[in-house]
Amino acid sequence: MTEQPREQLLLDLIETEAPTLDNYVVGENAQAIAALRDCCAGRGPQFIYLWGPTGCGRSHLLRALTPTQRGWVPTFDESVSLYTVDNVQSLDDDDLERLFYLMNDVRNHPHARLVVAGNQTPSELRIRDDVKSRLAWGLVYGLRYPSDAAAREEFIRLAHARGIEMTPEVLTWMSTHCSRDMRSLKQLLDRIDQFAMKNKRKVTLALMHKLNATARND
Predict the structure, then answer these.
(1) Over its length of 218 residues, how does the chain's per-residue pLDDT go in tens digits?
(2) Quick one: 76 and 135 in the same domain?
(3) Where among 122, 142, 162 does a domain terminate?
């Protein structure tokens, strides 16, 4: 049996939360989250479109809604009531064709719901017009990043869940050097966790400087 590299073993020890609607940092996106909860319960419009910049939580929300779904664009099944399609702006012609038929099938079955996400408003997307127009059939929400305070609070919560205590000095350094989108912050927490375990050190400002220097040299 091939022995795993030490770095991979450390990564395997890092436990991360599965995405849910409850652990999404809502911030100014309360209306969108309320609509998604209604969607899960089979209420409200059959279609929801979410758009926003990288790191705003689009993929988090879609994975929370359909954690066991497989494939870019699922095939309609009358026994399934909720579907999601992420990164619509990146779908190729075949995927867009499948999405077109999926949207028609969902519309013809009142119990079904479809949530699609992309990086732009429907009108700005450079995809085929018949799919673009269908994205506006239901509710459309633009997702926003959490505030600095909300992002900081969630980062501290996630760190505590891993047994990592963040000193005030580290948090102050992060507030001036790190993005506040949650994807970037979670990736940073993974790197901090791995680096601290590998070096058998507590998370201090000195360790953050060392981690930063290591990242620049990679």
Answers:
(1) 344 443 433 333 344 678 999 999 998 999 999 999 999 999 999 999 999 998 899 999 999 999 999 889 999 999 999 999 999 999 999 999 999 999 999 999 999 999 999 999 999 999 999 999 999 999 999 999 888 888 788 888 888 888 888 888 888 887 777 776 777 787 888 888 888 888 777 888 888 888 877 766 55
(2) yes
(3) 142
The answer to whether the predicted template modeling score (pTM) of the entire model surpasses 0.85 is: no
Q: Which residues contact 212 (CB under 8 A, 6 or more apart)?
A: 177
**What is the distance between the alpha carbons of residues 166 and 168, in angstroms, rounded to a whole number?**
7
Distance CA 163, CA 92 (A): 43
Q: Are 123 and 132 in contact (CB under 8 A)?
A: yes
Domain count, the chain: 2
Enclosing domain of residue 62: 30-142
Phi, psi of 196, deg, nearest 5? -65, -40
